[in-house]
């Protein structure tokens, strides 16, 4: 992930350097400060995110907004029309993203649904405008539903007893959830995120599986 990000920004910096140098030598005349040049601060990072980040919905929305703003600054479309298009376009992107994710993650969805049937109200945890530190050392762990709303939750499963499979339903709304997992597990993620995302830093393949069913809205879930 970091290598891809570095390559993208490396290419971008080289391009800027070539254009700047070419302008200085009189080889060509490319104006950096065209109408709407500031929209590049929206377009370029979102475009980079499409190639470097697994969660792409937020980047697609940002790219769409940036391009529409650029077109409006260039008088290709009217600003009045722009504001009418932005909201429906965002809703279409979010809806399409959810449909395609559910289609491609069908096997994971079925497994999560089956594991959730074993959970009950006692398996729900919420942190609203607060923080919680959960340690499951020595406990048998089948799953949890965790909600962080303007708050944070840290789940330490490194010494938990996981028989075969477990599920974590993680909702992060303007908040953050950190999940620490044992070394002998495989982590499979399903996420629906808008201006947020899931960072899965677990690269090992174990004989047990933890399914993370995440929803992030201006929030994040960090698995490590």
Write structural notes for this entry.
By secondary structure, this protein is α/β, with parallel strands linked by helices. The protein folds into 2 domains: 103 residues, no CATH class; 118 residues, no CATH class. The protein is built from 5 helices and 10 strands; from the N terminus they run H-H-H-H-H-E-E-E-E-E-E-E-E-E-E. The protein has a 5-stranded parallel sheet. Strands 2-4-6-10-8 form a 5-stranded parallel sheet, with no helix packed on it. The radius of gyration is 22 Å and the shape is elongated. The chain starts with a helix and ends with a strand.
Task: Name the quaternary structure.
Answer: single chain
Structural class: alpha/beta
Relative strand content: 25-35%
**Radius of gyration over all CA atoms, rounded:** 22 Å
Give, in order, the helices and strands. Answer: HHHHHEEEEEEEEEE
Main sheet makeup? 5 strands, parallel
Q: Strands across the major sheet, in which order? A: 1-3-5-9-7
Shape: elongated
User: Can you give the mean pLDDT?
Assistant: 81
Q: How many strand elements?
A: 10
The parts where pLDDT drops under 50 for at least 5 residues are none
User: Portion of residues in helices?
Assistant: 40-55%
Q: Number of domains in the coordinates?
A: 2
Q: So how many helices?
A: 5
Question: What is the rounded distance between the termini?
Answer: 15 Å
């Amino acid at each position: 992930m970091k290598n891809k990000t570095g390559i993208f920004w490396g290419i971008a910096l080289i391009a800027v350097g070539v254009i700047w140098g070419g302008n200085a030598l009189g080889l060509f005349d490319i104006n950096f400060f065209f109408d709407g040049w500031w929209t590049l601060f929206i377009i370029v990072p979102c475009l980079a995110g499409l190639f470097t980040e697994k969660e792409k919905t937020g980047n697609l929305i940002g790219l769409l907004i940036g391009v529409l703003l650029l077109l409006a600054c260039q008088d290709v479309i009217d600003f009045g029309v722009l504001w009418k298009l932005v909201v429906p376009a965002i809703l279409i992107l979010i809806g399409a993203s959810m449909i395609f994710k559910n289609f491609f993650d069908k096997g994971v969805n079925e497994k999560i649904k089956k594991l959730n049937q074993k959970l009950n109200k006692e398996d729900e945890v919420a942190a609203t405008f607060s923080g919680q530190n959960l340690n499951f050392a020595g406990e048998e762990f089948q799953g949890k539903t965790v909600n962080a709303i303007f708050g944070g939750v840290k789940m330490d499963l490194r010494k938990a007893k996981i028989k075969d499979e477990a599920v974590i339903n993680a909702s992060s709304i303007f908040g953050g959830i950190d999940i620490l997992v044992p070394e002998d597990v495989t982590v499979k993620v399903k996420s629906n995120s808008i201006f947020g995302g899931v960072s899965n830093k677990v690269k090992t393949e174990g004989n047990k599986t933890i399914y993370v069913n995440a929803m992030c809205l201006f929030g994040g879930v960090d698995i490590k």
